[in-house]
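Comment on both lines for my students:
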Amino acid sequence: MKNQIVSNQELIFSNMLEIQAIIRILKRKGITDENEILDEVKKL
């Protein structure tokens, strides 16, 4: 298999989907909520 080069845009999109999936899981399990996530993002 040859090494594939992906664009920065593809990496950003993939990362965004992974983060959204993690957030959905945490919310579904009752570990966190939208406000807590937004507060943490603001701290960054």
Helices lie at 8-28, 34-43. The first helix runs from residue 8 to 28.
